[in-house]
Amino acid sequence: MKKDVVKVAFVCVHNSCRSQIAEALGKRLACDVFESYSAGTETKPQINQDAVRLMKQKYQIDMEKTQYSKLLSDIPPVDVVITMGCNVDCPNLPCKYREDWGLEDPTGKSDEEFAYTIEQIHTKIIELSKRIQEYISV
């Protein structure tokens, strides 16, 4: 019997930067473990252009080809919700498991600060993937 695929939503208010990076890295680094989605309570007309540029440089991922700013209502029901560190009331989304990664929003900051945030997300995606794999195999 095939197990259901775990669905993970990366959530932040505008769904334009950290959650988009997490969706892209989730698809790249953990697609064999979980499906990645991102969403917010508000949308922006486009993904943060610094995030787009730096993700192209570091991972050759063009987030604008497959991703766009979405509302919580635009994604399917999920099993896991990861909030990025909203510093406001984080959006509520029904799920089986939730955690907050408490990441600073690098919008408007230097490339170095963006790169640091991207590295943090990369590490956390790998850790989350391992935890989900361990949980599923139990």
UniProtKB/TrEMBL annotation:
Superkingdom classification of source: Bacteria
Protein name (record): ArsC family transcriptional regulator
Highest classification ranks of the organism:
Bacteria, Bacillati, Bacillota, Erysipelotrichia, Erysipelotrichales
Domain (Phosphotyrosine protein phosphatase I): residue spans on this chain: 6-131
| A Gene Ontology biological process term | response to arsenic-containing substance
Query: Do you know which PANTHER family this protein is assigned to?
Result: ARSENATE REDUCTASE
Q: Which keywords does the record carry?
A: Arsenical resistance
Q: Which Gene3D superfamilies match?
A: 3.40.50.2300
Q: Which Pfam families match?
A: LMWPc
**InterPro entries named in the record:** Ptyr_pPase, Ptyr_pPase_sf
